Each structure stands twice: as C-alpha cells, then as structure tokens.
C-alpha cells in the first residue's frame, strides 16, 4: 500500500473546531508540518475535510 505526504500550508487560526481536530489527528499542528500517512479511505476523508489547508503529494 502506498503512502501520502501531507503538508500544512495555511494556518488553523479561524478554522472550525472539527477541522482543527482533523489536522491534529493527522499530526499537523504548525504551518510547514509534514506527515506521511497510509493511502486509505480514512486518510482521504480527512484530507477532503481540510483540503483548503493542506498540500498532498505521493510519497
């Protein structure tokens, strides 16, 4: 199974509480944080929820 590299590129300030919680569950807390997550349905759902805050790359 492949992995996805996720990078937080916009601030969480002003975001809804559930979006902040989603970012934290992915391990993203500050701008510039990167994490590698498995490419599965749960991760894609989280990315869809905060797609306007993150950049996604295959990794």
How is the quaternary structure best described?
single chain
**Order of SSEs:** EHEHE
Report strand %: 25-35%
Put simply, the count of helices is: 2
Structural class: alpha+beta
**Average pLDDT level:** 96
Helix content class: 25-40%
Q: Quote the distance from N terminus to C terminus.
A: 11 Å
Return residue spans where pLDDT drops below 50 for at least 5 consecutive residues. none
What does this structure look like?
The protein is of the alpha+beta class. The protein is built from two helices and three strands, in the order βαβαβ. Strands 2-1-3 form a three-stranded antiparallel β-sheet, with no helix packed on it. The protein is globular, with a radius of gyration of 10 Å.
Descriptive keywords:
59 residues
Could you outline the blueprint of secondary structure elements for this entry?
Blueprint: E1 3-8, H1 17-25, E2 34-38, H2 41-49, E3 54-58
Please outline what is shown here.
By secondary structure, this protein is α+β, with helices and mostly antiparallel strands. It contains 2 helices and 3 strands.
């Amino acid at each position: 199974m492949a992995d996805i590299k996720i990078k937080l590129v916009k601030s969480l300030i002003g975001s809804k509480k559930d979006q902040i919680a989603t970012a934290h569950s992915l391990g993203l807390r500050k701008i510039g944080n990167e994490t590698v997550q498995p490419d599965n349905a749960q991760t894609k759902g989280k990315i869809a929820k905060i797609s306007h805050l993150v950049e996604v790359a295959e990794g």
